[in-house]
Write a structure and sequence with these properties.
This protein is mostly helical. Helices cover 53% and strands 5% of the residues. Helix 2 packs across helix 4. The longest helix is centred in the C-terminal third of the chain and has 26 residues.
Length: 304
């Protein structure tokens, strides 16, 4: 059994996003696509992914491990060390959270046609693919909620609509006033025929097309707007970090943050945003100091 067979057997069973990622990884592994799984040692796999970027290498190694595990479940001989080999860890990217004033200034600099996307991302915490997957029916005006039930990916430039990567990604998020006004204005200002429940909530420049971040950056003049405001390098994903910072400042605990961001594991939330809760350690120390100091004082008084 080889990688190509594994992909053919499972392609119809995978969610669309998983299929896209694994197909892309398999394309990069053409050099070992016909190698039998019992000969796929960690050394062979590492050599095959050596020239790939850290992110693609991680996807490729995970694809190999998936194929080997599948082969083992079917009774094929495999190399145990390959099943348990660690996946390459991409370098951590420094988080950047904008202030509310910076978000509003950036949206204004870009202009009304495209700038409100900045506010939507910063005030909902959605991933870019989740924003693109929203449809009119996902907005509940009565409850001020958005239902996140699909996501878009762009393999080789084409849009693929599928489910969020994990079950935790399917969630509802609160819609605050700034985001609500953007959503309702976008729906109200479009032609009647584009307001039906299955229409994309955020339309691209072409009639009826979904939002595409690559086209949006170009049309919005993203880099020029950042330069004009002196903000330096800011990624669209940093607007999600901005939302996490705002959630923390609102007083929400880290479990609420996990839920609204759609993280499957609390460990992921802690790993990425635990620093936002460092002040609670100081508060805990002060509270313990007060409690211990008070009880110590009481015991001394009793002894006397």
């Amino acid at each position: 059994m080889a990688l190509g067979f594994w992909q053919e057997v499972n392609a119809d069973r995978w969610r669309s996003k998983t299929a896209v990622v694994n197909a892309s990884a398999a394309d990069r592994l053409a050099c070992i696509a016909t190698v039998r799984v019992d000969r796929l040692t960690p050394e062979v796999v590492r050599e095959a992914v050596e020239s790939l970027s850290p992110y693609v290498a991680r996807q490729a190694v995970n694809a190999v491990k998936g194929a080997v595990k599948h082969a083992r479940s079917l009774g094929y001989e495999v190399v145990p060390a390959t099943v348990s080999m660690p996946s390459p860890r991409p370098p951590e990217t420094a988080q950047r959270a904008l202030s509310v004033e910076e978000v509003q200034a950036l949206a204004a600099q870009i202009g009304p046609l495209h700038g409100d996307v900045v506010e939507l991302l910063a005030f909902t915490g959605l991933r870019v693919g989740e924003l693109a997957g929203l449809e009119v029916r996902d907005y509940n005006a009565a409850r001020s909620r958005l239902s996140v039930i699909r996501a878009v990916s762009w393999p080789r430039g084409g849009a693929v609509v599928g489910e969020p990567k994990t079950e935790a990604g399917k969630r509802t998020v609160p819609v605050i006033g700034a985001a609500r006004s953007v959503i309702e204005r976008r729906i109200a200002e479009r032609p009647e025929e584009d307001r039906h429940p299955y229409a994309p909530l955020v339309l691209g420049p072409r009639r009826g097309a979904r939002f595409n971040p690559n086209n949006w950056r170009r049309d919005a003049g993203w880099k020029a707007a950042l330069d004009a405001l002196g903000l330096g390098r800011v990624r669209l994903h940093d607007l999600r970090h901005t939302y996490a910072s705002l959630v923390r400042r609102s007083g929400a605990d880290i479990y609420v943050l996990q839920k609204v961001l759609g993280h499957r594991e609390i460990a992921t939330t802690i790993d990425r945003y635990g620093h936002l809760y460092d002040d609670e350690i100081d508060e805990l120390g002060a509270s313990l100091e007060a409690a211990l100091g008070g009880s110590h004082g009481q015991s001394v008084a009793t002894e006397q």
